[in-house]
Amino acid sequence: MTDATHPTHPARPRRDVWLTAGLVAVMVLGLAGLAAATGWQETWASIGRLTPGQVALLLLLALANYMLRALRWQLYCRVQRIPVTFRQTLRHYLGGFAMTATPGRVGELVRLRWITQETGTPLERCAALVVVDRAADLAAIGLLTAVAVAFSTAGLAGGLPVAVLSVVAAIMVTRASLLTAALELGWRLLGRWPRLFGRARRAAQALRPFSAWQVVLPALALGGLGWLAEGLSFHLLLGWMGAEVSLWTAVGIFLIAMVTGGATGAPGGLGGAEAAMVALLTLEGVPLSVSIPATAVIRLTTLWFAIAIGLAMFPLATRAATRGAHAA
Questions:
Q1: Any transmembrane segments, and where (predicted)?
Q2: CA triplet 81, 83, 86: central angle to 5 degrees?
């Protein structure tokens, strides 16, 4: 019998799985088609240049990104006075990566469920964590992209709009006064859906504690260092595969591809991120025999590595949350 407060919709999970599987298949077939067109021997030769130690370093840099962003999540929990230890935060944050490939990444909301089960904190008090976490990523990526555009030795000027839009969106979302003013302007212009605008306004007010610079600056630093670690891994990877791409050019290409993939709305940015990365590398003169395997490897050592960690952590987080709920 289904609990009325937590209805199950078996058709939706199946649909989400098939959608994700379809996107993965299209991505793999697209990369494979490009690799076949340029010659499998050249592609495999690029991959063959990598040593186990180099792959391990790529994974460590990705792990550094996840750990730094988990620290940021812990900071946000403290702002909301949510009584969680960093050990709990690691379970919640890393376990949520198992749901990264869900449409819109809504599956990551499971983090909030674990928090409420373990601590008894009301869901309304936790909900802002997801919003500010995404906004902090946008701001960090936007600022890093702007730096990459400024210091890149190549023509990444096309990434400047991405940087500007990312930072503006992050500011609008996290600055309660600006978001409230925008919502009130929308209400005056439309004059409809009063309940919807009322709820949105209350949600905007809940973001006010995160607007303090004592919170914003360390959050930006943690997110910026995390994403820079993955950009650095992309730079190292390209060098190991024989492509001469400067650090900031590689960082800019990586981040622009991440934002482009996210803008498509596809789970995990599948398809869009890979296409953008190959296209930008091609514009920089990197041959397809390098850009295709480099794209495949960096996605395996970032996106799919995160999902693998999440899948390993998910049952641990679920069991701990279930015990916490029973103890309460």
A1: 17-38, 50-68, 138-157, 163-190, 210-228, 234-257, 269-290, 296-317
A2: 110
Tokens of 282: 């091609």
Residue type, 171: I
Amino acid symbol at 292: I
Listed in sequence order, the residues at least 6 apart from 25 whose beta carbon sits closer than 8 Å to its beta carbon are none
The length of the chain is 328
Angstrom CA distances, 304 to 43, 55, 156, 284, 296, stand at: 20, 14, 27, 26, 10
Max Cα-Cα span within the chain: 62
Q: What gap in Å lies between CA 154 and CA 151, rounded to an integer? A: 9
pLDDT in tens, the chain (328 residues): 334 444 334 344 455 445 445 555 555 555 555 444 444 455 566 677 789 999 999 999 999 999 999 999 999 999 999 999 999 999 999 999 988 777 656 666 889 999 999 999 888 788 888 888 988 898 889 888 888 888 876 656 555 666 666 666 666 656 656 666 665 666 566 666 666 555 556 666 667 778 788 988 899 999 999 999 999 999 999 999 989 899 999 999 999 999 888 777 666 677 788 889 999 999 889 998 889 889 989 998 998 899 899 989 999 999 998 886 666 5
Cα–Cα distance for residue pair 19/183, rounded to 1 Å: 33
